[in-house]
Amino acid sequence: MEKIKFGCAPIAWTNDDMPELGAENSFEQCISEMALAGYEGTEIGNKYPKDPETLKKFLEARNLEVASAWFSAYITTEDFNEVEEAFIAHRDFLHAMGAKVIVVSEQGYSIQGQIETALFENSPTLNGADWKRFITGLERLGDLANEKDMKIVYHHHMGTTVQTTTEIEQLMADTDPDKVSLLFDTGHLVCSGEDPMYILDKYFDRIGHVHFKDVRSDVKAQVTQNKDSFLSGVKQGIFTVPGDGMIDFQPIMNYLVEAGYEGWIVVEAEQDPSVCNAFEYATKAKKYIDGLGHN
């Protein structure tokens, strides 16, 4: 496990998609509690300073590094020149912060931000022309990342056009491994009904970043039955930290260690912090992960 760095995502303190969740939590509280819980790094939220030197000052005082940050791509629905311009600014910021990977998710046609759209009944798909446009644009972003000796890690995600095993397999088959890597997210795979061990084993060589997120099976069943949206599911607590839900992380951790994974494992569990205190849950997750060791 010496080659693995453990980080925490700020979404447990303040939710970027629903700013009312954790509006009371400051940036300084968030990173201080991450450090106190024992993490080495962080992903970046909306409350973080946008200036690299300012952000470095805050993080270095707490011995935290930047693991990555999310980039919403609209390759299929917007002018690619605008996508490229936004991506370059995002890339340059992360490069200045010392990050090696850039989290990318295609948000064209996504329903993840639609509060009234049923999550499990309306997953979007791309037609042939849109898929080709998506792949071409994504590989272009990969080229731009490579210019800075970085790589993009594609985030399969609930409510988007790359969610299922079939869609992940198609993405991996149609993209150049030198240009597009994969982000392995336990929570989104299990929530979607996929087998995380299958994806981990089949695409380990393509995995450049890992999110550890757990799923509450009872809430998932409720969200499905009630035809709730992704954001409504988050509010209800469909996601939680490792060790608090339905996923057994022991075989996943064993595989990562035995296969020689090098990089970040980021705990990411968006919940309502007024119900599930972010610091308490971050601490619980870190203790659980430390207990996994390598068995």
Write up what this structure looks like.
This protein has 295 residues and is an alpha/beta fold. The chain has one domain (4-292): TIM Barrel (Alpha-Beta Barrel), CATH 3.20.20. It contains 11 helices and 11 strands. The protein has helices spanning 27-36, 52-60, 80-96, 128-146, 165-174, 186-192, 196-202, 217-226, 230-236, 250-258, 278-292, and strands at residues 4-8, 41-43, 65-68, 70-73, 101-106, 151-155, 180-185, 207-212, 214-215, 239-240, 263-267. It has a 9-stranded parallel sheet with strand order 3-2-1-11-8-7-6-5-4. The termini are close together.
Keywords:
single chain; about 300 residues; alpha/beta; TIM Barrel; two-stranded antiparallel ribbon; 11 helices; about 40% helix
Write the layout of secondary structure elements.
Blueprint: E1 4-8, H1 27-36, E2 41-43, H2 52-60, E3 65-68, E4 70-73, H3 80-96, E5 101-106, H4 128-146, E6 151-155, H5 165-174, E7 180-185, H6 186-192, H7 196-202, E8 207-212, E9 214-215, H8 217-226, H9 230-236, E10 239-240, H10 250-258, E11 263-267, H11 278-292
Parallel strand pairs: 1-2, 1-11, 2-3, 4-5, 5-6, 6-7, 7-8, 8-11
Antiparallel strand pairs: 9-10
Brief digest:
By secondary structure, this protein is α/β, with parallel strands linked by helices. Helices cover 41% and strands 16% of the residues. It has eleven helices and eleven strands.
Shape: globular
Reported for the largest beta sheet, the result is: 9 strands, parallel
- With strands numbered from the N-terminus, the spatial order across the biggest sheet is 3-2-1-11-8-7-6-5-4
The N- to C-terminal Cα distance equals 11 Å
Helix content: 40-55%
What count of structural domains?
A: 1
The CATH class is identified as Alpha Beta
Helix and strand element order: EHEHEEHEHEHEHHEEHHEHEH
Gyration radius, to the nearest Å? 18 Å
Q: In percent, how much strand structure appears in the residues?
A: 15-25%
Structural class category: alpha/beta
> How confident overall, as mean pLDDT?
96
**Multimerization status:** single chain
Instruction: Give the name of the CATH superfamily.
Output: Divalent-metal-dependent TIM barrel enzymes
